[in-house]
Structure prediction request, 266 residues.
Amino acid sequence: MVSFDGLRLGDGGPIYQQIVRHLQRGLAAGTIRAGDELPSRRVLSARLGVNPNTVQKAYRLLEEAGLIASHAGAKSFVSAGPAEIEAVRTQLLTEEARRLVEALRQTGASREEAMALLGRLWDEKEETQDETT
Amino acid sequence: MVSFDGLRLGDGGPIYQQIVRHLQRGLAAGTIRAGDELPSRRVLSARLGVNPNTVQKAYRLLEEAGLIASHAGAKSFVSAGPAEIEAVRTQLLTEEARRLVEALRQTGASREEAMALLGRLWDEKEETQDETT
DNA sequence: CAAACCGTATTATAGAGCTAGTACAGTTTG
DNA sequence: CAAACTGTACTAGCTCTATAATACGGTTTG
Prediction:
């Protein structure tokens, strides 16, 4: 069963996009695998405290992207293959990294300053990771 | 006169936020300085092809943040001091860098992979920089 | 002073995102 | 079969973002 426990809804744009991103990142990290069962629209919406329609929109987008498979009446499952997963991973990483590079350059940061900042924030976050995963 | 020529409206969220961010980044980079004259709401909205109210909203937020000063009837000017500029700069950088770190960790990337990715994208972007600044 | 700007404010309209409630057909399970 | 669940679809209402069209008073400049 695909878990959405790690998903904290916040200022990450529309909720349905956050749900899509959470599954994409799980695929990229390997914590979500092909064949995994997905929670139903109703169950997940109740767990997240959002409307079922919002979850439905996320699931519909994921199905259109070929990452999950839904059949009316039955449960939904992850259907992404290795090729699709690798594509998702590189897309996610380069997308976010390009945003940072853009911001860094426009604020007049140097290459060294950029690398130092990333390294510092990486270590900083590492310390506050108390998960029993 | 503060220039907004480098501002390309796209998928960076609400337009008024993009305008705010552009001025913030200009301050952080030093290309926009205290005392600089701002284009009027009407002029800038015409140049960007957006509604004057959208620019007004951005300017209002910038004034509430103490970065610019507006006086009814007269032109608007940048009023940010060195302390405020430094605060804006660190805020912008850490904000965006935290987003990337979050994405990297959730996709199961290592520290080395993270640094390598940033370095590669940085150099990649450096090549396609043909500005005559 | 008077025209031309400026900042500021108001009302109306439209679309996107999200919520709320309901409904219906297909699948699973006892 | 029948109950319980599933995916799917629809309408209605709210907020935010953005547009459109004015309007008013203050400042600058000729």
Observations:
- The CA atoms of residues 41 and 52 of chain B lie 6 Å apart.
- Chain B touches chain A through 35 residues (CB under 8 Å).
- Strands of chain B lie at 68-69, 77-78.
- The first strand of chain B starts at residue 68 and ends at 69.
